[in-house]
Design a protein that fits this description.
heterodimer; A: alpha+beta; Aldehyde Oxidoreductase, domain 4; globular; B: alpha+beta; 2 domains; five-stranded mixed beta sheet; about 15% strand; binds FE2/S2 (inorganic) cluster
Chain lengths: ~750, ~150
């Protein structure tokens, strides 16, 4: 569809200007250099520059924003306005969000607005936070806010200038509203489509005036529908899984059942006899079965007899890994935060009527399990490059990785980004992962476009998990009930280590994504010590919706409730006291508590818990209500969430992200875990990696703080506080802190 | 050759009888609205109707269908319940990634065809087999109630 649009617009409209000069961003150049040094083995993080930015009040655009409207807007003679999203939409609604920003400054009518994915191009479409094209870290709106407002305003000015010239009136007399360009005095008007062809010939204005927030007619309004709300309810939305190229074959890959294992020998005789199987290929990444269709491919794979070499594989189970982590936790780790003297304070506090509390927290490996199993179509092109159809989240990385695989230039790797059936971090990989696999198979089988399909079992057993983490925390309140000391040791794999970004993200042995939310906690603890061990394992790990905050916020907020109880203080009051210098955190905490009816008496067996946290420059508080029945079984009844993410582009999408984030957090806290026995993953599908289902889902009430601060993200920040709020609600009933996840391990669900 | 009736059309497919209906639809007939999510009847993404009843196409070998069986997919589903459900889904902007939603909608249509006034417990039991990793459950529940109201009106 996109190419059709571009072609059409190029003929007569507001065309995409691919030949325009590249963005000279320093970060992009250093990224390319890092990649060049690493050859085909590429690595980068979706989340990269955020920790550096988190220290600042608001995210900053790195490098100049590019306001050229032709990059982002196609106004066609049929009066449609198509906004090109350089970001992937994996459900978070970013195509709608970006289009809203453009449409606002353009004064388009929402009904004429469409969304499409921009072609992959690091020069034109880099994420300014990353230096390459990619989506992640809840950065998309923050990244595009200035760029797209400028683009929209520039396009509007060009339409106005065109109309003014045709009418021979001063531009100042021309107004634009709801997609109509008017000259009020003479009663004349044009649609955008009437003006598009001529407007495109004008130079792009160097300066544009942006709207003030009070004049917004689309931004912040609750009644805009998502641009994908119809195609995703009638089966017409196309995901990568639905791509059908002429002659396309389907491939599945048999990968080592143990992480780090390799193929020793293959007997493929039976597989080759399966009707529909075309070819069996042994590659460095596993054994590929290529077939006429998905069923034949999976049947063929089942018939393979493969002997694996486990010499370099992980052969421990998760219990053994955890035992090793506990041994490590007895030793000091790399220092992430150190002020005052926590150890000394514990001694003095204990002797002076205060309370010292300790706790060990265990967080399991977790799969992302996006609803659409990973897959990509790769078709080789005659020029030595290829075209890829995928829910590509890191186009910039994937172009370079695949160029390495095929021996072509990154620009020769065309990517047709598709709607993605979820990601939760899974699709943004340092090494191109499944897309690199698909390219390797396509290279080995150049006769036809290859569709590599992961089954759900491939996905659940396939790694890139949220790492297994162990936290040990010791903390103290003094006799007055003030939090005076906090010592925390964290043990878990680093997914930054071994990547070119280790240099940026790992400082003095501390991977910032392992300690974010802990070492920089907002509570003002005078004696704070946080350290980290980053053990290694062949088990692959990755960021997972809200990254380090998935475990750090949980451990922190559950400990805070225990400390509040020891201090004899109300959990909300205890937090409010400590957040005096953090008005936005205090603001969401108060809002959630007020809306939830905090402090009102509850029936027997009902509990209420709270948690508050900042992540990705967004502030979120949750209050959870639970019922604990006579048998000790827990049901989450309601969740009230307050969020402050600055200026809100689409309130209904923020609301949806809070609903989904609550479900994500609760679902995994209840029953989510990946375990291994002797290095083999115990789970394989949704019958064992148990997802949240309808009957688990509580009511969710969302309250958004009105704000004109710079917009930040909403995709991830709704996750960190929901599970600790639920745990604290259970704690309020049972007095038992929930420190080992998932809760099913405690037999309460 | 196996003959099946999909959305009112007779289709001939040359596939082994044990091939699940899901792959017949998706790979042989290029009807990609019905989704693959788990392959073991645990997620509901592949839900279609056979003679009006919701079934998991991933666990339905095509040989199990008789020449009289009428298969309805998201592409062909019509009628009062379908209209009400799709309109409610659109009104409430239920979808996020959207990948589960064909299956959710097919399950919801089947529920409302039988029961125009479902309770929360009815919704739980009809919809618990449909996983949504984006956790759009709050809106799915609201949309089913909205559609039910439309159908009763
Ligand atoms: S694909 Fe059939 S139930 Fe999941
Ligand atoms: S909308 Fe994404 S899985 Fe349901």
């Amino acid at each position: 569809m996109l190419h059709h649009l571009i072609r059409q617009a190029a003929r007569s409209g507001f065309a995409l200007d691919i030949a325009a000069k590249p963005l000279p961003t320093p970060s992009r150049r250093s990224f390319l250099k890092a990649v060049g040094a690493g050859g085909g083995a590429l690595v980068i993080g979706a989340h990269l520059p955020m920790p550096a930015l988190a220290a600042e009040a608001a995210p900053k655009i790195i490098g100049p924003a590019d306001p050229r409207p032709q990059l982002f807007i196609i106004i066609a003679p049929d009066n449609t306005v198509t906004v090109l999203a350089k970001h992937l939409d994996k459900g978070q609604g970013i195509v709608t969000g970006l289009a809203t920003i453009v449409a606002e400054e353009l004064d388009a009518d929402w009904a004429q607005v469409r969304g499409a994915f921009a072609p992959a191009d690091n020069k034109l479409y880099a994420n300014h936070f990353f230096g390459v094209q990619g989506t992640g870290g809840s950065t998309a709106v923050a990244n595009s806010w200035d760029e797209l407002r400028m683009a929209g305003a520039a396009a509007r000015a060009m339409l106005v200038a065109t109309a003014a010239a045709r009418w021979n009136v001063p531009a100042g007399e021309v107004t634009v509203a709801k997609g109509v360009v008017r000259h009020a005095a003479s009663g004349r008007s044009f649609t955008f489509g009437d003006l598009a062809t001529d407007a495109a010939k004008l130079p792009v204005p160097q300066q544009v005036k942006l709207k003030e927030a009070k004049d917004y007619v689309l931004i912040g309004k609750p009644d805009l529908h998502r641009l994908d709300h119809i195609s995703k309810t009638n089966g017409t939305a196309i995901f990568a899984m639905d791509i059908r190229r002429p002659g396309q074959v389907t491939a599945v890959l048999a990968r080592s059942p143990r992480f780090g294992g390799t193929v020793k020998s293959v007997d493929d005789a039976a597989a080759r006899k399966v009707p529909g199987v075309i070819e069996v290929l042994t590659l460095p990444v596993g054994v590929a079965v290529i077939a006429k269709n998905t069923w034949a491919a999976t049947q063929g794979r089942e018939a393979l007899k493969i002997t694996w070499d486990d010499a370099k594989a992980e052969t421990r189970g998760t219990d053994a890994m955890l035992a090793d982590y506990r041994k490590l936790a007895d030793q000091p780790g790399a220092v992430a935060a150190n002020k005052g003297d926590a150890d000394k304070t514990f001694t003095t506090v204990a002797a002076n009527g205060g309370h010292v509390i300790d706790g060990e927290f265990v967080f399991p490996y977790l799969a992302h399990a996006p609803m659409e199993p990973l897959n990509a179509v790769v078709a080789l092109n005659p020029d030595g490059g290829c075209t890829i159809w995928a829910g590509s989240q890191f186009q910039g990385v994937e172009q370079m990785v695949v160029a390495g695989v095929l021996g072509c230039k990154p620009e020769q790797v065309k990517i047709e980004t598709q709607w993605a059936g979820g990601s939760f971090g899974r699709r943004a990989t340092p090494n191109g992962d499944y897309i690199a696999e698909a390219a390797m198979i396509a290279k080995a089988y150049p006769k036809a476009p290859v569709h590599l399909v992961w089954t759900r079992e491939d996905d659940i057993k396939g790694g890139r998990y949220r790492p297994l983490f162990l936290h040990r925390i010791k903390a103290a309140v003094d006799a007055k009930g003030n939090l005076v000391a906090w010592k925390q040791r964290i043990v878990g794999q680093s997914f930054m280590a071994g990547t070119p970004f280790e240099a940026v993200m790992v400082k003095n042995g501390v991977d910032e994504t392992s300690v974010e939310g802990a070492s920089d906690m907002a509570y003002p603890v005078p004696n704070l010590a946080v350290d980290l061990h980053s053990p290694t394992s062949p088990v692959t790990t990755l960021w997972w919706r809200s990254v380090g905050h998935t475990h750090t916020a949980y451990a922190k907020e559950v400990m805070i409730d225990r400390l509040a109880k020891a201090a004899g203080k109300d959990p909300v009051a205890f937090r409010m006291e400590m957040l005096k210098d953090h008005p936005r955190l205090a603001g969401v905490l108060k809002l959630a508590a007020d809306k939830a009816g905090w402090g009102q008496p509850l029936a027997k067996g009902k509990g209420r818990g709270v948690a508050v946290h900042e992540s990705f420059n967004t502030y979120v508080a949750h209050v959870a209500d639970v019922t604990v029945d006579a048998k000790g079984q827990v049901k989450v009844d309601r969740v009230v969430v307050a969020i402050d993410c600055g200026e809100v582009v689409n309130p209904d999408i923020v609301k949806a992200q809070m609903e989904g984030g609550a479900g994500w957090g609760i679902g995994h806290a209840l029953r989510g875990e990946i375990t291994m026995t002797d290095g083999l993953v115990d789970q394989g599908n949704f019958d064992s990696f148990l997802p949240l289902r309808m009957s688990d889902m509580p009511a969710v009430e969302v309250h958004i703080v009105p704000s004109h601060e710079r917009p930040t993200g909403a995709g991830e920040p709704g996750v960190p506080t929901v599970a600790p709020a639920v745990a604290n609600a259970v704690f309020s009933v049972t007095g038992q802190p929930l420190q080992t996840l998932p809760f099913s391990r405690d037999g309460i669900v | 050759m196996i003959s099946i009736n999909v959305n009112g059309e007779e289709r001939q497919v040359d596939v082994p009888g044990d091939m699940p209906l899901l792959w017949v639809l998706r790979d042989e007939l290029n009807m990609t609205g019905t989704k693959f999510g788990c392959g073991i009847a645990q997620c509901g993404a592949c839900t279609v109707h056979v003679d009006g009843q919701p079934i998991r196409a991933c666990q339905t070998p095509v040989s199990m269908l008789t020449p009289e069986s009428k298969v309805t997919t998201i592409e062909g589903v019509r009628g009062k319940a379908a209209e009400a459900v799709q309109a409610a889904w659109q009104k409430l902007d239920v979808v996020q990634c959207g990948y589960c939603q064909s299956g959710q909608i097919m399950s919801a249509i089947a529920l409302l065809t039988d029961n125009r006034n479902p309770t929360d417990a009815d919704i739980d039991s009809a919809m618990d087999g449909n996983v949504c990793r984006c956790a759009t459950y709050v809106r799915i529940r609201a949309a089913i109630k909205d559609a039910a109201q439309t159908m009763r009106a």
